[in-house]
Amino acid sequence: MNLPQIQTLISAIGAVLVLAGVGGVAWMAAAELRLRAIRRGRMQSAGGPQVGYGGGANGKGLGSGISGPLLDGVRKLGQQAAVRDPAQISVLRNRLMQAGFYNREAPTIYLGVRAAALVVATIGVIVLLPMIAGGKGGMGGIAVAGFLAGAAILGPDQVLKMRKSTREREYSDGFPDLLDLLVASVEAGLSLDAAVTRVTEELARRYPNLTVHLRFLVLELRAGKSRKDAWSAFADRLGIDDARQLATMLRQAEEMGTSLGDTLTVFSQDMRAKRMLRAEEKALALSAKLTVPLILFIFPCLLGALMLPAAARLMHVFSK
């Protein structure tokens, strides 16, 4: 197969992709119109006002100017993805809360951002196809197309994982301090609910992300939710093993009638020991992590500083 045939094949593939993109957009538009008609019919049958997708009675979005229509478009794409698979919304909402997104519409917006990223990457790849086929882009065009595809597929999930891992490190660092303050408050005579409220005020500056979840816990307890369910939901929102162990320990202490202060004291000592072990693990791993930078950067510089004077002296001697 010679070069003109390859260019013709790539052009045909690009035309097919363009037609597929146009057909997909048309199908999404038809599905959106159908869903709007269904929802409008339900609202009219219920006798309620027709509320737009933006969240207000007049159909305006949360933003204004350019950001308002853009956010509405992302939200609509997310609604289409949510309608196709409603079962994943609860799991996705839990992941987003662990990553720090507490908005009620966060799953819809996240799904819309993923869909918009795929659309932008598809358009970018289609635009780059003629350049790659004509030999103008070369390997650079292929690399850009691959980067767009990878960013669209893996980018949103990686951002979510990075935010989640950053917050989990803060939760793990702040959990021993949380338990120490809980032990001190309980031993001072406060109840567990009052102790949580007091600890939330004390940890607001040092661990702001952990404080948000503690405030959710306080609100759930004040709303009348059982202590067992509230602490279990708190552990699910944090997503770390220490929180799950604390929720299990509190449930067992409540069921068996054991002393809450003694139980929290033992658990707090265990958490402090775990934090010290994590610090020792990082300290011991430092020497192994420094080996590669030493070999790649410091050793060549040291070798050059030692060998260059001798090499210059030898060159001077042999030149004579």
Report on the architecture of this protein:
By secondary structure, this protein is mainly α. About 8% of the residues have low confidence. The protein contains ten helices and no strands. Among the domains are: 112 residues, no CATH class; 108 residues.
Q: What's the total count of β strands? A: 0
What is the share of helical residues? over 70%
Shape: flat
Largest sheet: none
CA radius of gyration is 29 Å
Work out the helix count. 10
Task: Find the structural class using helix and strand composition.
Answer: mainly alpha
Q: Ends: how far apart?
A: 61 Å
Low-confidence stretches: 43-66
Average of per-residue pLDDT values: 75
Q: What is the beta-strand fraction?
A: under 5%
Order of helices and strands: HHHHHHHHHH
Please render the helix and strand layout as text:
Elements: H1 3-46, H2 67-84, H3 88-98, H4 106-134, H5 138-187, H6 192-202, H7 208-222, H8 227-238, H9 241-256, H10 260-319
Helix pairs in contact: 1-4, 2-4, 4-5, 5-6, 5-10, 6-7, 7-8, 8-9, 9-10
Sum this structure up briefly.
This protein has 320 residues and is mostly helical. Among the domains are: 3-43 and 66-136, no CATH class; 169-276.
List keywords for this structure.
single chain, 320 residues, mainly alpha
